[in-house]
Structures are given as structure tokens and as C-alpha cells.
Amino acid sequence: MSTIKKPAKTDKPFMRRFFQEKRNILSENNKHEMDMEIQSRLLISEEYRRAKTILIYAARENEIATELIIHAALANHKTVALPVCHDGGIMTFHRIASLTDLKEGRYGIMEPDDSCEVVIPDEATLCVCPALCCDMRGYRLGWGAGYYDRYLANAVCVKAALCYSDSLIPEFDAADYDVKMDLVFTENFTRRL
């Protein structure tokens, strides 16, 4: 197990390094099993069933996988949209018909190609956000660029984070711009807030 110190709830850069290191030491089999369980919990949720649109990210190697959710949502005839990051910290979501609509974009993240139309969220939209950790109140610690918090600040949708259960902590100091999630899906439970 990691030998680094437990992070202070006020030191977000240290917390990011701490939880990244925790992920780095997961075995491939454990990560795969936990990621499948997290995705399965989301797919059986009432919030997923009610959603007509799913806003979701294409997971990088060190993020919780989302491919099962994307394939299921497409098979369930839901609108599926993935983010495109623009200059100035702006993010938009674009509809895809399949994973073949993706190309490598900013930060090496797979994103929809230029032909994919922009999707505007509404009450029937579930936005699935990446998280390094979450607190029990529903605040998430992302990768630090702030794209999701800026996007969600004025978005009307159900907000959900994917998080490992051992990365759910009692509380960290959330900033005024941090957006609270409505749900946190872990491999062991779903937390509704």
C-alpha cells in the first residue's frame, strides 16, 4: 500500500497526487472488476432509466471506465454525448452514434469529431463526471482544470460522479465554484445526495 501521508482536506493539489497514486497501485484485474461494478450500478439506477440523454466522458487509462455505459446507452437508444474542451476552459458536449465518432483531442482525451452536433442538457439528462475522490456531501475532486464545474454551474441535469469507495472521504474544503453531485456511484454502493 502507499506510504504517502493522508492529505489535508484543504490541500487539493496534494489530494490529487494522493488519490492518483492510490489508483496507480491498483492491479489491472481489481480495477477492471471495480470499474465494471461501478458502471453496472449506474446502469441499474432509476436515474439512468429515466434519462433520455447521457453526457459522459471517454475514460483514460487511470480513470474509471465508461465504455460499458456508453455502449449500453447507445443500445438503449439514448442520446449519448461526450465532451470537447475548448480554449478558455470551456467545454461542450457533442452527440455520437458510436465510438468510431471519436478522435484524439486536447490532453490526449478521446472526443467527438467536428461533425458531431452539440447537445444541450435538460431535466432528462444524466451527466456522468470523472472524479479522483468525492466527499460525503457530493463534492468531487477532479483533475484540476475546472471544465466540469464551469459547465455544470448553469446546466440543468442530474449530476453523477464515478468514484472508488475508498476514495470517498467525509469532507474536503469545496470552493464556491465547486458543483455538488446528485449521485456518487462506487463499486460498493450508490450515494444519493
The named CATH superfamily? NagB/RpiA/CoA transferase-like
Low-pLDDT ranges: none
CATH topology: Rossmann fold
Helix content: 25-40%
Overall, the morphology is globular
Strand content: 25-35%
Biggest sheet statistics: 8 strands, mixed
Rg from Cα = 16 Å
CATH class: Alpha Beta
Q: Please report the number of helical segments.
A: 5
H/E element sequence: HHHEHEEEEEEEEHEEEE
Number of separate structural domains = 1
Strand order of the largest sheet: 6-3-2-1-7-10-12-13
Architecture in CATH? 3-Layer(aba) Sandwich
What separation lies between the terminal Cα atoms? 31 Å
Helix and strand composition category: alpha/beta
Number of E strands: 13
Mean pLDDT: 92
Protein described:
- This protein has 193 residues and is α/β, with parallel strands linked by helices.
- It has a single domain (12-192), classed as NagB/RpiA/CoA transferase-like (Rossmann fold, 3-Layer(aba) Sandwich), CATH 3.40.50.10420.
- Helix content is 25%, strand content 26%.
- The chain has 5 helices and 13 strands.
- The chain has helices at residues 12-24, 28-43, 46-50, 67-75, 147-152; strands spanning 53-55, 79-86, 90-96, 102-104, 110-112, 118-119, 125-130, 133-135, 140-141, 158-162, 168-169, 183-185, 190-192.
- The strands form 3 sheets. It has an 8-stranded mixed β-sheet. Strands 9-8-11 form a 3-stranded mixed β-sheet.
- A hairpin with a 3-residue loop joins strand 2 (79-86) and strand 3 (90-96).
- It is globular, with a radius of gyration of 16 Å.
- The mean pLDDT is 92.
